[in-house]
Amino acid sequence: MSLAGSPAEAGLAGVRSADRKTVTSAFAILRGAQQKGPFARLLPFLGPAFIAAIAYVDPGNFATNIQSGAKYGYQLLWVIFASNLMALLVQALSAKLGIATGKNLAELCRDTLPRPLVYGMWALMELVAMATDLAEFLGAALGFSLLLRIPLLWGAVIAMGVTFSALSLEKHGFRPMEILIGASLAVIAGSYVIETAMGRPDWLALAYHAVTPSFADAESVLLAAGILGATVMPHAVFLHSGLTQGRIVPQEPALIQRLYRFELADCAIAMGIAGLVNAGMLIMSASTFHRNGLCGMGSIEEAHQTLAPLLGPASSWVFAISLVASGLSSTMVGTMSGQLIMQGFLHKKIPVWIRRTVTLAPSFIVVLLGLDPTRSLVISQVVLSFALPFALVPLVWFTSRREFMGALVNRKVTTAAASLTTAVILALNVFLLWQLLWTVWRVGPAGGPCHRSGA
Question: What is the pTM of this model?
Answer without folding.
Answer: 0.86
